[in-house]
Amino acid sequence: MPRIFFLDVTNRDGDQTARIGLAKLQKTVVNLLLGELGIHQSEYGFPFSFHEVPYLNANLALQERGAIRNIILEGWCRAIVGDVEAALRDTKARHFNLSISTSDQMIQNKFRGRYSRSDITRMMTDAVDAAKQGGALTVGVNAEDASRTEMEYLVEFAGAAKTAGADRVRYCDTLGCDDPFSMYDRMNRLAKAAGLPLEVHCHNDLGMGVATSIGGALGTIDAGYDAYINTTVNGVGERSGNADLLSCILALRHSPSCRGRELLSPRIDLAKAWRLATYTANAFRVPIPLNQVGVGANAFAHESGIHADGALKDRRNYELYDLEELGRGDPSCEPTGREILTGTHGGAAGLAHVLQQELGVEDPPEERLRETLQLVQLATLSTQDTLTAEELRIIWEHPDLAREIVALPSPT
Ligand SMILES: [Zn+2]
Q1: What would the pLDDT profile of 231-242 be if each residue is shown by its tens digit?
Q2: How far is the CA of 368 from the centre of ligand 1 (A)?
Q3: Rounded distance from Cα 14 to ligand 1 centre (Å)
Q4: Centre of ligand 1 from the C-alpha of residue 237, in Å
Q5: Which of 142, 189, 144, 151 minimizes the C-alpha distance to 169?
Q6: CA 13 to ligand 1 centroid distance, Å
Q7: Where does 38-146 have alpha helices with state H?
Q8: Which residue, 15, 75, 217, 291, shows the most beta carbons closer than 10 Å to its own?
Q9: What's the pLDDT at 334?
Q10: d(CA 323, CA 307)
Q11: How does pLDDT run across 2-52, given as a tens digit for each residue?
């Protein structure tokens, strides 16, 4: 039976969003926490970009050591041979998504008539071929602006991708202009006609990013193929954002058209959903809205008399799902007394205290402490924030890889 998988693009679409971004160590922790949630794949960066290369390779090494688990790390490239060759040469990444615009709007007004539809198809198949010949294990092909692409050409494009060896095609609702019904219909037709699994990538310009994602995934499933929903943590992403990861999972678990169908991988475990949402919000410096699905401060709050009375009698009166399912429940206390933190200007004694408090490390050797302190200082240089326990653990347990992640790469 076909299934729905999640492919999170926080470290690509989220990271490229105007005004916000993540340090490489923060991207690393996002990969780690996504793996703990049982998310199938993380689009973890840009392997043709020089400043991403050390981080991308170090994260693969962390995966080999078991520090990042249960997740495929995949790089995003333009669907041009040059990007693919650079990615294969400079990184050990072997899972890729290759992107090119397919709508007449973009072919005529972005590429300014330089390419015909057949040129676009050929560039894509050449890029897929280069990736496969170079040892890529999976290749997804992204039809950018698929929503505004004529169906006949989209089917032809997807069929050519499949023939070239692509494992799936990404239907990109790049402008967020589809709706759940149009998405169901178009992706159902595309999957049937092209005969391969599809990814659904939705933006939120009409406020329907989650709904269109669910519609597209169900259309694909009902055509008999696996679907891969692209999401971001807390819905961060270009303009009005992408489909929110937690909202999509909860919709598949609890909405009438989905529940009971066993569409989701049993590996998905939301016990870390709260931590992932709060970590990512802090890292992006984008607060979680009060009414955010599942993780907002009001998601399980009841004040009005009728609601409070009903929720106290039986939580199901006013709560659709359980807060414990999402890793909520423990009171979170902001420390108000003395705090010893570590950061750019930290010293050895403070760091030793934090190591003991956060990781239970007792009396670390002096040389190890000095090395860790340098890495902590480097790591916090770009964020000007104090380290979290997850970040400190990576630095402490994998100093060689942490150095690659936090050091500024030299321009090539
Ligand atoms: Zn996007």
Answers
A1: 999 999 999 999
A2: 42
A3: 8
A4: 7
A5: 142
A6: 6
A7: 53-64, 81-90, 104-109, 117-133
A8: 217
A9: 81
A10: 17
A11: 999 999 999 999 999 999 999 999 999 999 999 999 999 999 999 999 999
Residue 202 alpha carbon to ligand 1 centre in Å: 7
Instruction: Write the single-letter amino acid at 117.
Output: R
Strands 198-202 and 168-173: parallel
CA-based angle 150:156:158, to the nearest 5? 100
Average pLDDT along the chain: 96
* Residue 336 alpha carbon to ligand 1 centre in Å: 40
Expressed in angstroms and rounded, the spacing between residue 361 Cα and the centre of ligand 1 is 42
Average pLDDT (210-222) is: 98
The percentage of residues in the chain with a pLDDT greater than 90, rounded to a whole number, is 92
Are 250 and 229 contacting, i.e. CB atoms less than 8 angstroms apart?
Answer: no
Distance of CA 70 to the CA centre of its chain: 14
Owner of token pair 């699905």: 293
> What is the per-residue pLDDT across 336-365, written as a single tens digit (0 to 9) for each?
888 888 888 889 999 999 999 999 999 999
